[in-house]
Write a structure and sequence with these properties.
Elements: H1 14-22, E1 32-35, H2 41-53, E2 57-61, H3 77-87, E3 88-89, E4 94-101, E5 104-111, E6 120-121, E7 127-130, E8 133-136, H4 140-161, E9 173-185, H5 188-196, H6 200-207, E10 214-219, E11 222-227, E12 244-248, E13 253-260, E14 268-270, H7 272-289, E15 297-308, E16 313-315, H8 320-325, H9 330-347, E17 364-366, H10 368-373, H11 380-387, H12 402-405
Parallel strand pairs: 1-2, 14-16
Antiparallel strand pairs: 2-5, 3-6, 4-5, 7-8, 9-13, 9-15, 10-11, 11-12, 12-13, 15-17
Amino acid sequence: MVNINGIEWLKLKPSDVQAVISEQDFDESFYFEFKDDRVLNKKLQEEVSAFANTFGGYIFLGVSDDKQIEGCTTWNEQRIHTTIHDSITPTPPFDVRKFTFDTRSVYVIKIDEGSEPPYITSSGKIYERLSSGSFAIKDSSKLSQIYNKREQLLTKMEKKTSIPPVCENSNNIYGYIDTGFSLVASDIQIALDTFNQADLKTIATEMADTLSSFSLYYVGNSIIFTPGGLSTPQGHLPAHTNNFLEIMADGSARMRILLINNDQDDSSVNMMLPVTILRSYKEIYTKIMGDLFPHKVAYAKKYESLTVRQQFQPVMFYDEFALELNPDWKEDNNKMLEALENHRKIFGVTTVMTDDRIPKTGLYTIDKRQLELWGQEYTAESFIDELFFSRFITLGAVPITENNEE
């Protein structure tokens, strides 16, 4: 989407907003709309719906049609948020900033093109942006185009971030966890610049302090990170049969974590290794793309899935190598093993047996509103934590209660 006066959204100052409004050729257009303080909730809904259903845009609230900065007295940020959240379904990606001119307050509402159109107002109408106005869509063919646009966009995102399955048989691979997300930055150029400015040499040096073996390298327009490595008697592995994180130039990513046990007489899988691997993925991604978060990201569409190749029993404890490096973990390790034993006495041995991808649902949205609904602050850390969270990574974890400690 275009920037106001060519300036990044979060770097806008009151002088920038005033300068662009004062430009002789700056008028209401496909991307810009002026509304004074008397605008009704219903009309604001229509404008937001239209921008979200089209290609995004800005509403200058507190500016008259003839570009006079009048300010707002009845509108405030809370009312704007409430109007959009409660009156448009689904809630489109948007942000609000307040600019003060003397004692006059102007609110600039930035609406990004939504990934889940149509965005419907509380009156049940769907709007689109045409020229410098917003109009209700009444033509059934246009409605079909919007629904098709949604399906095409979601299909494109899912195809970009999904990973082909492992088809070859391997005795030590019991399954794998796939997760990934398609990131939509507020300004794609900022995302590309962030990616291209990554200092892989410095990142690799820092990672060497915590990982004994890894690879970090470019493949085409992506950065690939593999923690450690796997092997076969022939020294080669089929495609996609490894733990890896792929970071794409626009900030999107996909990753795979294999569930492995090299002891053929034991069908359990220690999930502590996948937990460690996912943590390293998040660390690498943050070092490369972290500057985008949270305010330079519009939203992300995420998926996660579990694929089972062979039935296995998930467990969670520290292995001998981890305990050798961290002797202080022995007490916690004993508690985990005791909790697992008590759990099995009651519930039996947990066995993951399905040979299907779970869940069967598609992509879901992570954005500012979703984080707030989950009761989390809108920060870079919370956003990235959600991108690298998986419901399957803690398979085998058993809560340690007071009874386990007695």
